[in-house]
């Protein structure tokens, strides 16, 4: 009946990587629709928030863990409270959980598992695991994703690394009920996650029933749809299989879980179609979002409390809201299908849950099952004896307002219970049910099936339409298949199914025990199964004491498929990591294969059904590989020669449990580990270990390439002419065989004997030739390093070449140049050749010749001739170089220089002659300090000589100096600074100055000030680095200060000269000047040293000619005050 309910995703840019399928509890309705009086709710929260919280910041800012549980062992945690509705006055305590699905999502590390350290505590976080704590629990329970669902990308390159996990927690929530649920340690990271950012949180959808609530169809879909940003293309979800009420208002509620929606990423929307196939879609929103940013990190789930309760949940979107279905404009009466449309302009997000509820017509075909026995109950569990007959009655009523077609009752029989008999009675006037049957093929313990067909609506909804009676035999714990242990307890439940006769919408209702008996929940159906426990002694089951050990071998892939194990157990067996099977148990299936481990791992096989029959087993895997290889080696070849039968192979085994057996397919069907004396071919061995694990290996013995000789006709010359370059030769290539290769050239004599003429060792070269061949028959016989042989024959015909060598005796001495000779040495008969030299000689030897070029024409009896030119070289004179070193000797005219003769020739055969100097070491060394040019001549033992020139340089240390006063003047007065600057040649290292007034200095360029007038003799003494000295003296004149008064002046001179009277002075300061008349009156005064002086006027009139008196006061350079006075004439 699953085909009646679909959520189809039409093609679009969204990557629907995990199709959206209905999700129900393991014991949920077979239609995958909860057709109930009740509803669904969603709770959840975020476990990651902004480091600096803001309403509008997105999760690509720095993020930190939310950790509100005050538990130091958890790194992140948040809570949300499960609250049941009180619709129609319903008592929430009467609500019963039918399904609870837990989802968690996030973006963190690319790794599936990673370590995080906080406050000194290090944890390994696994994206597939979380911790949950239900109301009333003190500790967390670890939950693992069921079969690694829903989506776990391997890197950021896949869906930006957004992952979603799912686990069924129905049992946990049924037991805990309403209250605060905590979820902790989602595999998240703090920090900044790039442009996408980090986020993480959780959501839980809970489907529950309450008899006082409205009838609804509830369906939970989940999958993984990744919606990329900037595509702005639509994605359609097609939902069908519900059944809206036939009349009156239709209420529709929608739940959505999504990830990575942003508050600032506008442009994403979620729509529902108006009616059926209208093509008109209505954009949806709720109080915390808008139609143009539906996924905006908001959590809107009906006001249930959360901890913390944030507005910006940075990437987590949970929404539960009523659709605007005024006037049934979106979902109409009787409607059975609708479509959703969603897309994004900017934002990237992933949808992983859509839950849908709608006001529905409930088809209430009721089946009440009752136990007829009077056995006592302990904690609502009937206590029965082992193998006791147990009688049951199931009553059928139609309490709804809808007729039913294809009505059917199914009661699965537990594996550990024995079916005995069944009978049915139909009381209604209409209908024609079939006889009930026990179908052993349905389920592990078989199933009771009663096909009722059409069931009409009676006038009295409480009227009994029919009943089924059947008998079972209570189990003992050995009633299951061999090797299985079956619990002595069992549960009985069932399901009544069919179709609404009007809408043809399928339904599935659980078989109930009746209705609640307390006053508050009196209308609540009791859907829990009947529970039984068989008492009494039962022995140990045969073959059940030790776990079944399953050892597999050479299973391909990284994991062990369940299909490799199912053959060891009965059909419909399921496999878990532990028993009893609990919420945290891991089931192994086609989607979740066994890990491939060498060490035996414990597992449990559980018969499908109630899960009461189980068998422990261990599973291990060994890898055994046959690595057959060639062991024969003939210098790199597997066989010695082409076609030989001297190969050897061996089987190498990796893994397995020894001892091993071997079976080869060689001609002798060998059963040994190694096989010898094999020709070329492929050989296969089957290796079997002590555990009957088999591995096959093949090995190929390859023939070496056959040894072959190929004559190169283009490079060979087997018909030579007279041209010496046309001498007979044979070029050939050797292929195949094993290097190195050697070849013999064999001449076949007329008497049939063989004569080896030449032998070649090829080394690693395969192309060689034999040269200088005479006419005749030959063989080339080639042998490789493995003694494989091949030969080929050829013949040389044509003229005999001229074959000879020569010897040149060079010139012996330079004094005797005509002492050389050239001699021709023919091969064979010396009289077979004739000679014609360029000198006119006709003998084989040309003697007493000097340097030059000589040619000869050589002829043989075949009429062949050739010319050769020889060169006689003059002896080379000796070659040498000269090294030198110098030193300074004070007083010598030049640098003392030592010369060293360097020659590569034999020193004992050389004579060295110098033109001067002090000669030592047989002339190899000469020293001199006398400036000039010297020659050296080397003569070798052949009388050949070479000459070189060397020079001794002069050396002198001299010194002068210059001086100047202030500026560049050489006139220096008392007290002025005199600057001295030396001028010299040589490597001077120190200076000594004597200024002639008792003062001295050692600077290179000193200064000095004299205190007295006079002429001083200044001396400069220099010292160079060789200890030599030089001296220079010079006079320096120092001038005194001066004040001079003119004898007369003429104010009225026509040329304007001498018109003022004033002192002429040098080097004085503080000057004062007076002029007195003959009565002693001051007629002129000034203290300005720059004044022009007296112009001859007094009180505006020209003073008369005559004698006047002056007085001058001034400060001398030595600081003393001086006065000078006298008379002068004014002339007119």
From TrEMBL:
Q: Which organism is it from?
A: Cyclobacterium xiamenense
The PKD domain sits at 975-1038
Task: Please name the InterPro entries in this protein's record.
Answer: Ig-like_fold (IPR013783), PKD/Chitinase_dom (IPR022409), PKD_dom (IPR000601), PKD_dom_sf (IPR035986), SprB_repeat (IPR025667)
User: What name has this protein been given in UniProt?
Assistant: Gliding motility-associated C-terminal domain-containing protein
Give one Pfam family, short name only. CHU_C
């Amino acid at each position: 009946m699953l085909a009646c309910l679909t959520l189809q995703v039409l093609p679009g840019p969204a990557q629907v990587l995990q199709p959206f399928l209905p999700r129900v509890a393991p014991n949920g309705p077979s239609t995958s629709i909860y057709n109930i009086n009740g509803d669904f709710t969603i709770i959840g929260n975020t476990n990651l928030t902004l480091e600096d919280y803001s309403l509008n910041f997105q999760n690509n800012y720095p993020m930190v863990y939310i950790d509100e549980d005050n538990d130091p062992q958890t790194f992140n945690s948040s809570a949300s409270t499960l609250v049941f509705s009180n619709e129609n006055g319903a008592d929430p305590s009467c609500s019963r959980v039918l399904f609870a699905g837990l989802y968690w999502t996030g973006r963190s590390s690319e790794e599936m598992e990673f370590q995080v350290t906080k406050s000194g505590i290090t944890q390994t976080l696994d994206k597939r695991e979380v911790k949950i704590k239900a109301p009333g629990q003190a500790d967390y329970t670890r939950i693992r994703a069921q079969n690694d669902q829903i989506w776990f990308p391997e890197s950021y390159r896949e869906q930006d690394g957004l992952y979603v996990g799912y686990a069924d927690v129905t049992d946990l929530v049924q037991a805990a009920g309403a209250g605060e649920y905590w979820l902790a340690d989602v595999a998240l990271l703090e920090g900044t996650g790039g442009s996408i950012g980090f986020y993480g949180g959780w959501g839980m959808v809970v489907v529950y029933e309450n008899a006082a609530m409205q009838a609804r169809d509830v369906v939970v879909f989940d999958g993984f749809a990744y919606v990329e940003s900037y595509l702005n293309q639509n994605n359609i979800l097609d939902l069908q299989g519900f059944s809206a009420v036939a009349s009156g208002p239709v209420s529709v509620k929608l739940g959505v879980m999504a990830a990575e929606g942003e508050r600032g990423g506008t442009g994403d929307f979620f729509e529902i179609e108006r009616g059926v196939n209208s093509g008109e879609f209505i954009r949806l929103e709720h109080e915390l979002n808008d139609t143009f940013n539906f996924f905006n990190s908001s959590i809107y789930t009906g006001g249930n409390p959360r901890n913390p309760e944030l507005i910006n949940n940075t990437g987590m979107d949970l929404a539960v809201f009523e659709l605007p279905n005024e006037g049934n404009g979106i979902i109409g009466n009787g409607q059975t299908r609708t479509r959703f449309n969603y897309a994004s302009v900017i934002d990237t997000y992933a949808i992983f849950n859509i839950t849908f509820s709608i006001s529905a017509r409930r088809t209430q075909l009721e089946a009440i099952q009752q136990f007829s026995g009077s056995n006592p109950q302990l904690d609502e569990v009937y206590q029965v004896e082992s193998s006791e007959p147990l009688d049951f009655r199931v009553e059928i009523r139609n309490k709804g307002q809808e007729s039913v077609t294809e009505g059917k009752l199914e009661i699965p029989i537990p594996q550990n219970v024995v079916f005995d008999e069944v009978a049915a009675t139909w009381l209604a006037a209409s209908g024609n049910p079939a006889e009930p049957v026990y179908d052993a093929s349905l389920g592990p313990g078989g199933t009771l099936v009663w096909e009722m067909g059409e069931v009409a609506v009676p006038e009295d909804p409480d009227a009994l339409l029919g009943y089924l009676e059947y008998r079972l035999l209570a189990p003992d714990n050995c009633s299951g298949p061999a090797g299985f242990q079956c619990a002595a307890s069992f549960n009985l439940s069932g399901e009544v199914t069919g179709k609404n006769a009007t809408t043809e919408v399928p339904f599935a209702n659980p078989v109930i025990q009746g209705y609640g008996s307390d006053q508050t929940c009196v209308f609540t159906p009791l859907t829990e199964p009947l529970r039984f426990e068989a008492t009494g002694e039962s022995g140990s089951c045969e073959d059940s004491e030790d776990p079944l050990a399953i050892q597999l071998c050479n299973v391909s892939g990284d994991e062990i498929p369940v299909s490799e194990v199912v053959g060891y157990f009965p059909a419909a067996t399921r496999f878990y990591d532990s028993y009893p099977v609990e919420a945290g148990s891991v089931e192994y299936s086609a989607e979740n294969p066994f890990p491939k481990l060498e060490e035996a791992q414990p597992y449990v096989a559980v018969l499908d059904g109630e899960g009461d029959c189980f068998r422990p087993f261990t599973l291990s895997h060994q890898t055994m590989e046959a690595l057959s290889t060639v062991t024969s080696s003939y210098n790199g070849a597997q066989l010695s020669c082409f076609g030989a039968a001297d190969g050897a192979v061996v089987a190498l085994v990796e893994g397995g449990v020894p001892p091993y057996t071997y079976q080869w397919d060689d001609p002798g069907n060998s059963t040994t580990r190694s096989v010898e004396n094999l020709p070329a071919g492929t050989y296969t061995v089957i290796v079997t270990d002590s555990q009957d694990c088999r591995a096959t290996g093949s090995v190929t013995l390859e023939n070496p390439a056959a040894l072959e000789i190929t004559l190169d006709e283009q490079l060979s010359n087997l018909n030579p002419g007279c041209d010496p370059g046309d001498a007979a030769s044979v070029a050939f290539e050797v292929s195949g065989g094993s290097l190195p290769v050697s070849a013999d050239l064999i001449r076949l004599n007329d008497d049939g004997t063989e004569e080896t003429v030449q032998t070649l060792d090829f080394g690693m070269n395969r192309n060689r030739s034999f040269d200088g061949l005479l006419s005749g028959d030959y063989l080339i016989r080639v042998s490789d390093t493995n003694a494989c042989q091949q030969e080929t024959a050829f013949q040389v015909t044509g003229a005999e070449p001229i074959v000879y060598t020569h010897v040149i005796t060079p010139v012996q001495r330079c004094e005797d140049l005509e002492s050389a000779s050239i001699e021709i040495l023919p091969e064979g008969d010396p009289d077979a050749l004739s000679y014609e030299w360029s000198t006119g000689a006709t003998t084989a030897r040309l003697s007493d010749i000097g340097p030059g070029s000589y040619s000869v024409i050589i002829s043989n009896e075949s009429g062949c001739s050739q010319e050769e030119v020889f060169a006689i070289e003059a002896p080379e004179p000796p070659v040498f170089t000269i090294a030198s070193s110098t030193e300074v000797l004070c007083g010598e005219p030049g640098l003392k220089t030592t010369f060293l003769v360097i020659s590569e020739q034999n020193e004992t055969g050389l004579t060295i002659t110098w033109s001067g100097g002090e000669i030592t070491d047989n002339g190899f060394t000469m020293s001199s300090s006398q400036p000039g040019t010297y020659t050296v001549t080397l003569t070798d033992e052949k009388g050949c000589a070479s000459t070189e020139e060397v020079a001794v340089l002069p050396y002198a240390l001299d010194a002068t100096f210059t001086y100047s006063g202030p500026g560049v003047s050489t006139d220096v007065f008392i007290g002025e600074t005199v600057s001295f600057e030396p001028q010299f040649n040589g490597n001077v290292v120190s200076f000594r100055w004597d200024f002639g007034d008792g003062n001295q200095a050692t600077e290179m360029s000193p200064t000095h000030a004299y205190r007295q007038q006079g002429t001083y003799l200044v001396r400069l003494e220099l010292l160079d680095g060789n200890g030599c000295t030089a001296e220079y003296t010079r006079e320096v004149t120092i001038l005194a200060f001066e004040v001079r008064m003119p004898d007369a002046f003429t104010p009225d001179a026509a040329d304007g000269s001498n018109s003022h009277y004033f002192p002429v002075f040098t080097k004085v300061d503080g000057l004062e000047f007076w002029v007195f008349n003959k009565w002693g009156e001051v007629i002129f005064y000034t203290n300005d040293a720059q004044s022009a002086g007296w112009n001859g006027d007094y009180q505006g009139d020209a003073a008369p000619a005559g004698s006047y008196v002056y007085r001058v006061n001034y400060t001398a350079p030595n600081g003393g005050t001086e006065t000078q006075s006298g008379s002068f004439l004014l002339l007119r």
